[in-house]
Amino acid sequence: MTLRALRRAAEERLSAAGVDSPALDARLLIEHALGLSREDWLVRGDEPVPPDAAARVDALLERRAAREPVGRIVGERAFWTLDLSLAPATLEPRPDTETIVECVLDALPDRSAPVRILDLGTGTGCILLALLAELPNATGLGIDISAEAVATAAANAARNGLAGRADFRTGVWGAGIAERFDAVVSNPPYIPSADIATLDPEVRDHDPLRALDGGADGLDAYRAIAAELPGLLKDGGIAALEIGQGQADDIRRLLETAGLPVAEIRPDLSGIERCIRAAKPV
Ligand SMILES: C[S@@+](CC[C@H](N)C(=O)[O-])C[C@H]1O[C@@H](n2cnc3c(N)ncnc32)[C@H](O)[C@@H]1O
Question: Which residue lies with its CA nearest to atom 18 of ligand 1?
């Protein structure tokens, strides 16, 4: 079988298994199994695939057909301009979360300023590290309740040349942090507990429950974080939080009750309200 024929067969297999991006996933898994680059398809598509290579591809396709996400299979995921390693305790970063990065960058008056950023529930470190990659004089602290997530985030900082500007610690949201920051970012768990069983298998069976479960109404983490934000922000500092579909009004109320007027609610690329930005009055 040629490489191109293998790819067609892989796509059909993933499509039959209900995978929603079979063409992309087939290509990524074959590239990973065989050490190919995207350009290789142009020049090597008619080459025969040796049986041992086909067996390596088959093993990965079997996992994907069982609805394990590509990022979990290959152990990493691209986010913003970065490649990030994953661990069982980290959420797989989503493109929607880049909305927070854009929102913070657009809200900062001076991108060369030495801003201090706090990321609550940092996971892979994706939000903090993407911001540090864009803000050459910024430094930051990422907090997560999971020690495995903290270790993964620290490794991702090193992998992307940002370790000198990023610290990571275990903690429960902002508890015990005395410092005040120019920006606090967070993508907290926001799925109502009862909805978790209805999620796609890629999410339900592979993202950690602690990264998903937002309590009975999905808002537990926002209540905790909103109460802490006034003590974590400098005067004039901004908070940018990812939100779930339909949660904007409730979270606006939580932030404004805490004394943080909402300045923006920003949609993601699908038009869903995804990031809420508030500021601490000067
Ligand atoms: C939705 S994930 C977001 C991860 C990452 N920031 C991202 O956007 O991909 C939420 C994260 O919050 C962490 N978390 C859950 N409860 C926490 C708590 N009480 N204190 C600190 N972190 C918590 C989870 O371990 C998880 O890494």
Answer: 172
Is 235 in a helix, a strand, or coil?
A: strand
Q: Which two tokens stand for residue 33?
A: 């199994």
pTM: 0.95
Q: Distance from CA of residue 140 to its chain's centroid? A: 17
Classify residue 236 as left (phi > 0), alpha (psi -120 to 50) or beta: left
Q: What is the pLDDT of residues 208-230, one digit of tens each?
A: 999 999 999 999 999 999 999 99
Separation of 58 CA from ligand 1 center, angstroms?
34
Note whether 20 and 107 are same-domain residues.
Answer: no
- Count CB neighbours of 28 within 10 A: 18
Q: How many domains does the chain have?
A: 2
Picking from 43, 74, 105, the residue at the C-terminal end of a domain is 74
Distance in angstroms (rounded) separating the CA atoms of residues 151 and 94: 20
Structural domain harbouring 20: 3-74
Same domain as 260, residue 172: yes
CB-based pocket (< 6 A), ligand 1: 91, 93, 97, 121-124, 126-127, 143-146, 149, 172-173, 187-189, 210-211
Q: What are the structure tokens assigned to 176, written together?
A: 């015990």
201 Cα: distance to centroid of ligand 1 (angstroms): 20
- What are 82-112's pLDDT values in tens digits? 999 999 999 999 999 999 999 999 999 899 9
Q: Are residues 49 and 9 in the same domain?
A: yes
Ligand 1 atom 4: the closest Cα is on which residue? Answer: 123
Give, for ligand 1, the residue of 72, 91, 100 to mutate: max count of ligand atoms closer than 8 Å to Cβ: 91
Structure tokens at 240: 């940018």
Cα–Cα distance between 140 and 173 in angstroms, integer?
Answer: 15
Ligand 1: atom nearest CA of 94 is 9
